[in-house]
Specification:
Chain lengths: 321, 327
């Protein structure tokens, strides 16, 4: 598998008043062609900002540095026109709140047709056909009727399907789904994950699934990336990461899941403390104050990701001790 | 079995909804909770699961008399709460407490957190001196894992996990006998969820408080509950002891919920999983005839559209509302 997206040393900084907030800190990773990558981390870990930066969708008070290559071509901070073309055609993003990605005052059909005309150069009739076809692909019940509806007339699950249809209409190589099922009920979540899986299989689309829910990532992705405080702390095949987590944070997260196999009579293992403040900068390992293995070295020296690009890697001093 | 602490009998909750129509607006009744019955004993946790809008929150609020009942009874320690006068209700509030989903918005932003936690004592233990209250508050802070020096700070200086600890401290300070937890960990980070779950379990062990634990997350629910109740469109589908429900669910909806749990099974192809339940959740304004679950049920028969299934006993502690639970 060759890399579709190569991210190197990506940093995202926000200006907040007279302070600086580091949302993403020298992050490097690849997304391969046709794969499904799960990106996991707690709130504020930088999951969304990393991908918004890649797509050129950062807020005005943010600055991105580093490099993001799409099929070898540098796109970080590229001119707006170039990004617009790329975003519609090659890469699409689906958000947690599907309302934020849809225009509230336009009918569903109109929004889909608009995209087909602009990005695929279709005429009105072709675009109408394409819109209907997309709603069928995402298995919206009664697609013909839905074309004429406004976003607020749909349930949360249906809206998320429409968002995915809008993302997929130009057959992008890469679909970034940011917490696509967090606002949905379990049985609807299962429907949406199934749909994404089918799209990946049938259209060979690469999918990045951003989620705070380790179980969702595990059940869905081939490879997994764990972020903490804006940095990559562990990455590997989902199988490897779950079988033998290398980073104490990943191990702690896995242990604290109330999975169906845990004995409800015993207490859940927990990670003490709270996620760190993105405003503060730490010299050593950002996880040190919550880590039961922390050594002297952890407070002064930042661990680096051993063997980036390897099947399974983590940033922890335990691995080089 | 001892007499239950709380007994809910055929509870119904209605909302009036104004709907704009061609001939002007008219009101329509939405039945959010429909004929739900169950009991809860001291020291017990009953988990409540169901889809968004299935009436979980309305049920909790109706028990606390924060919403009027359209029908049915809430019997608390043998007393029908509908018969309680305002003064008795105020007294009872110290025995019945609630913790909400969104920790920050349930705390008054202009009050130091120590005052927030002390507030119920002012109302329910008016005889306490300021000094005694302060001691009780610092004790409670310590108990929920917050430093007592923090009492002078304001809610916005705390993380959401800490805010949830503050809400729990406020709810537990009057030593309630029943705690209703409405999605208490859904808004929290994964690494904080386990901390709060453990805290609630410890508090229950220490004080014997009964807990009604509302959640859409079945794996959290399994860990927290002694018994589990499954709701769909305001109706009770199934209620059973935890292990029975997870190992031998009888209702097709319970089975679908359990199948939909994204268990970490790495390398499992999502396409190999059981088929997800098809279709959308119908609106409670216009529920399906007969069994409300029939529009999504994989084993529905014509009978299901005709008659609404009665709750039947699978065993003394296991009840299910389905015509075909024996299949
Ligand atoms: N417009 C903004 N101005 C200032 N800071 C911001 C802005 N947007 C995001 N941030 C900060 O950037 C950091 C990373 O945010 P990001 O949204 O990437 O986190 P996330 O991992 O996606 O979290 P969540 O799980 O909550 O979605 C956070 O500390 C956040 O508060
Ligand atoms: S580097 Fe040190 S503190 Fe950080 S995770 Fe590893 S052992 Fe723990
Ligand atoms: S009564 Fe019929 S529709 Fe309802 S759950 Fe049972 S089989 Fe399904
Ligand atoms: Mg995010």
């Amino acid at each position: 598998m060759s890399a579709l997206l190569e991210v190197r040393d990506l940093s995202v900084r926000f200006n907040v008043g007279d302070a600086e907030l580091n949302a993403v800190r020298s992050l490097s990773f690849d997304v391969s062609e046709g794969e499904c990558l799960g990106v996991v981390g707690e709130s504020g870990a930088g999951k969304s900002q990393a991908f918004l930066a890649a797509l050129g969708l950062l807020a005005d008070n943010a600055r991105a540095r580093g490099s993001v290559r799409y099929r070898g071509r540098e796109i970080l901070n590229a001119p707006r026109r170039e990004l617009d073309a790329l975003r519609g055609r090659r890469m699409a993003m689906v958000f947690q709140d599907p309302l934020s990605g849809l225009t509230p005052t336009a009918r569903i059909g109109h929004q889909l047709e608009e995209s087909a005309r602009r990005h695929l150069g279709m005429n009105a009739r072709q675009a109408r056909g394409k819109a209907l076809e997309m709603l069928e692909t995402v298995r919206l019940p009664d697609p013909r009727r839905c074309l004429a509806l406004y976003p607020f007339e749909l349930s949360g699950g249906m809206r998320q399907r429409v968002m995915i249809a809008l993302g997929m209409i130009c057959e992008p190589d890469l679909l970034i789904a940011d917490e696509p099922t967090t606002a949905l009920d379990v049985t609807i979540q299962a429907q949406i994950l199934r749909l994404l899986g089918e799209l990946q299989r049938d259209a060979n689309t690469s999918i990045v699934l951003i989620t705070h829910d380790l179980s969702v990532a595990a059940a869905f992705s081939d490879r997994i990336m764990i972020l903490y405080n804006g940095r990559l702390v562990e990455s590997g095949t989902t199988h490897e990461v779950f079988r033998s987590p290398k980073h104490p944070y990943t191990a702690g997260l896995l242990a604290s899941l109330p999975s169906l196999t845990i004995d409800p009579a015993s207490d859940l293992p927990t990670i003490p403390g709270q996620p760190p403040d993105a405003m503060k900068s730490v010299q050593g390992c950002a996880f040190a104050e919550r880590c039961k293995h922390a050594m002297d070295r952890c407070w002064s020296e930042r661990p680096v990701l051993a063997a980036p690009g390897a099947q399974h890697a983590a940033a922890c001093h335990l691995l080089s001790a | 079995m001892t007499t239950p602490l709380l007994s809910i009998e055929s509870l119904c909750v209605d909302y009036e909804q104004r709907r704009a129509g061609v001939f002007g607006s008219r009101t329509q009744t939405l039945r959010a909770v429909n004929g739900v019955s169950f009991e809860l004993s001291e020291g017990e946790t009953l988990g409540v699961v169901g889809e968004t809008g299935c009436g979980k929150t309305s049920l909790g609020k109706a028990i606390l008399q924060l919403l009027p009942l359209a029908a049915g009874r809430v019997v608390w320690r043998g007393m029908d709460l509908a018969r309680a006068d305002a003064k008795m209700l105020t007294g009872l509030r110290s025995e019945l407490q609630i913790v909400f989903q969104d920790p920050l918005s349930s705390l008054n932003p202009r009050m130091p957190v120590g005052e927030i936690v002390a507030e119920p004592l002012r109302v329910h233990a008016a005889g306490m001196s300021a000094r005694e209250r302060q001691l009780a508050v610092s004790g409670m802070f310590e108990r929920v894992g917050l430093r007592p020096e923090m009492t002078a700070r304001y809610p916005n200086e705390f993380s959401s996990g800490q805010c949830q600890r503050i809400s729990i401290a406020r709810a537990m300070i009057t030593r309630p006998k029943l705690l209703i937890c409405d999605e208490p960990v859904s808004a929290l980070d994964v690494s904080i969820q386990a901390q709060i779950c453990n805290l609630l379990r410890e508090l229950q062990r220490e004080t014997g408080v009964a807990i009604l634990f509302i959640s859409h997350d079945l794996s959290v629910l399994r860990y927290m509950s002694h018994r589990v109740m499954v709701l769909y469109l305001g109706r009770l589908m199934e209620i059973a002891p935890r292990d029975v429900l997870f190992e031998n669910p009888r209702h097709p909806y319970s089975r679908a919920l359990i199948d939909a749990i994204p268990e970490p099974a790495p390398n499992a192809n999502p396409l190999d999983r059981a088929d997800p339940l098809p279709g959308e959740i119908p609106t409670a304004l216009d529920p399906p005839s007969g069994c409300v679950f029939r529009t999504r049920c994989p084993i529905a028969t014509p009978e299901c559209a005709q008659t609404s299934p009665q709750t039947e006993n699978v065993s003394e502690s296991h009840h299910v509302a389905c015509h075909h639970w024996r299949c």
